[in-house]
Amino acid sequence: MSRAGTWLKMLGTGAVICIGGPAFVQSIRPSDEELFKRYNPELQKRSLEEGDRRAQEFDDYVNRLKQWSKSDKSIWYAAQEQQEQKRNDLSAQKSQAKEEAKTQREEMRKELLGDK
């Protein structure tokens, strides 16, 4: 067989593999609806209940990634800074709540001692 015939066979085989393979996989892959129908009823119910919450969480995460990418720093550093900021805010809130509780206790103590 000539070289041209060998090349044509190889190109044909490559095209069948490169085009036909993904097309075959796409044809046998179930759709989202088919997968959902295969769930047991309990999983279907839970999936429907949590779907909106998960979609919102994903949207929030994507928005945070967009915000982090606007920074001059790496996304990882920006995320770390935001986590540290959240920790600092949380600790500030806890300390403020402790101070308020302490103030309330002092006021209650003064009222009790003042009434007697």
Structure description:
Belongs to the CBP4 family. This is Cytochrome b mRNA-processing protein 4. Residues 96-116 have a biased composition (Basic and acidic residues). It is a single-pass membrane protein. InterPro entries: Cbp4 (IPR012420). With 116 residues, this protein is an all-alpha fold. Among the domains are: 1-30; 74-115. Helices cover 89% and strands 0% of the residues. The protein contains four helices and no strands. It has helices spanning 3-28, 32-38, 41-69, 75-115.
Helix content: over 70%
The low-pLDDT segments are none
End-to-end Cα distance = 115 Å
- The number of distinct β-strands equals 0
Outline of the structure:
Residues 82-116 are annotated as: Disordered. With 116 residues, the protein is mostly helical.
Output the keywords.
116 residues; mainly alpha
